[in-house]
Structure formats: structure tokens, C-alpha cells
Design goal:
By secondary structure, the protein is α+β, with helices and mostly antiparallel strands. Helix content is 25%, strand content 32%. The protein has two helices and eleven strands.
Length: 276
């Protein structure tokens, strides 16, 4: 009995031993497999930056190729094209030290501080009441003399502007498409009124001529003038009718009526020229 028990115990011990060995073997295999997986993951992680860089290098968009520059032979001298700057007229020199009232042999040059204004009454379709159409420009040139010589002031009609671009275009293209200037020629202002030589504002009348649209018409100018020494101010006023310059009263779809009389006001700012 004891021998059979030992035999059974030995058999059981053998079975336990075999089973334990198998368990140890399974554990070792699992451990090796886990280590291999971790090594593979580590290897993949280590290799991934390189692979990502490689992928980026492969898929990154290529820079746009611009227009290639023209090849230049190093032995060929560069061609230099000389250009001349446009010649500008010399600016006039003014006599700022001129004494008030000194007008003999003095030329007064009209400056861009001058202004011409043309005003005519009109009734527009879109407005319930009549209003004034006013056009102005600083595009004046000319010379003024107060020593007995006639004066001349020219106005660029094509540079007249108002509050309506349609009106401005009508004046340029329909009324004065060819003759774009108007010139006022003033007869002698001598003798000058008392007080003018002392710098006082003076009023007087001068006869003159308006040259416009190829026609010359005589006019009377009401003048207000003041001599400040370095600047001469003259305000001239006159009127004319459309028939005087050979034109009918303007009309368009946007106007009900236009008055026949045109009021003209010319403000002259002139400086004494320094004679050489």
C-alpha cells in the first residue's frame, strides 16, 4: 500500500514537474514575444522621424519656377540708354522789395492764386426752384501793366469745373470743343485813382475786349484793386450774353431754362517781376 502510494505520488510529482516545465516554457516564450514587440515598436518609433522626413520631402510642393532670366554674356558690355529729362521753364524771379505805388516799367505776372468765375442762372428739371450754375478755374496766365500798357489774361475754359461733372463735360465737348481759351485784354489803367499809390483799395472802370470762340467783343470791367508791394490784387467784374459770343442759349434734357446773361468775375493775384 505504501509502495502504491509512493508510486502514485511519484506519478503525480512527475505530472506536476512536466506541467511546471510547460508553464515555464510558455512564460519564456511570452516574454520573448513581448520583448520583440517592444523592440519592433522602439525601432519603428526611432525610424519614424526619418520616414516622416522622407515622406515630407517626397510630398512637399515644389517651388514655382519663375520666368528664367535672360543669359548675359560676361564679355558683352551692358548697353546704357541715355535719356534727357524734360526741360522745365525757369521759374520767374519776383521783386518782393518793390515799393507800393511803383508801377513804371513793372511787369506783374499772374499767379496760380488767381481765379475766374462764370455764373449763369438756370432752372433744372430735378429742382423746384431756380439756382445759379457756377464754374471756376485757377488756370489763368498773363501779365498786368499799370503804366499805360494794355494787360492780357488768358483763361483755360476746359479746366472750368462746377458741382456737376455732366455740366463740365458739356462745356468742354459741346460748347467749346475747339476754342478752349478765353482772353481778356484790358486797355490802359492810367491814370490810376487817388489813393492807389498809397496802398488803398481803389475802384475804377476799364474798357477791354473778350476774345472767345473766335470772336472779339468789347466789354466794360468794373475794377477793384489794391497794391501791397509784393502782390497786386485786382478784382474785375463784367457781363455778356450768349449771342455776344455767337452762341445760342444752352439747353439740355436736364434743364428747363438757362438765363441769357453770363456774369464774369476775375480775381487776379499778380506779383512784380524782377527785371534783369
Amino acid at each position: 500500500m505504501a509502495g502504491e502510494a509512493l508510486t502514485q505520488i511519484g506519478t503525480r510529482g512527475y505530472r506536476f514537474a512536466v506541467t511546471g516545465s510547460l508553464l515555464v516554457l510558455v512564460v519564456l516564450i511570452a516574454a520573448c514575444s513581448s520583448s520583440g514587440s517592444e523592440a519592433a515598436v522602439s525601432s519603428a518609433a526611432a525610424a519614424s522621424p526619418t520616414q516622416a522626413a522622407s515622406a515630407n520631402a517626397t510630398t512637399a510642393p515644389q517651388p514655382t519656377v519663375g520666368i528664367p532670366a535672360t543669359a548675359v554674356d560676361a564679355d558683352t558690355p551692358a548697353t546704357v540708354i541715355a535719356t534727357e529729362a524734360p526741360t522745365q521753364p525757369a521759374a520767374p524771379f519776383f521783386n518782393d522789395a518793390r515799393a507800393i505805388g511803383d508801377v513804371d516799367d513793372v511787369t506783374f505776372v499772374v499767379t496760380d492764386e488767381s481765379e475766374a468765375t462764370f455764373t449763369v442762372g438756370e432752372q433744372l428739371v430735378r429742382l423746384p426752384l431756380p439756382n445759379d450754375a457756377v464754374m471756376r478755374t485757377n488756370a489763368l496766365t498773363g501779365e498786368v501793366f499799370l503804366d499805360g500798357r494794355p494787360s492780357s489774361i488768358t483763361i483755360d475754359i476746359h479746366r472750368l469745373s462746377s458741382d456737376s461733372s455732366q455740366r463740365d463735360n458739356w462745356v468742354r465737348t459741346r460748347m467749346f470743343p475747339v476754342n478752349k481759351t478765353a482772353t481778356f485784354i484790358l486797355d490802359t489803367a492810367a491814370p490810376l485813382p487817388d489813393g492807389f499809390s498809397d496802398g488803398e483799395a481803389s475802384s475804377f472802370t476799364i474798357s477791354g475786349t473778350l476774345e472767345i470762340n473766335g470772336i472779339s467783343i468789347p466789354l466794360e470791367f468794373e475794377i477793384e484793386a489794391r497794391d501791397d508791394g509784393d502782390v497786386l490784387f485786382i478784382l474785375g467784374r463784367t457781363t455778356f450774353e450768349w449771342a455776344d459770343i455767337g452762341m445760342d442759349v444752352p439747353s439740355s434734357r436736364g434743364t428747363v431754362s438757362v438765363e441769357d446773361e453770363v456774369q464774369v468775375e476775375v480775381l487776379i493775384s499778380a506779383r512784380p517781376l524782377l527785371e534783369s
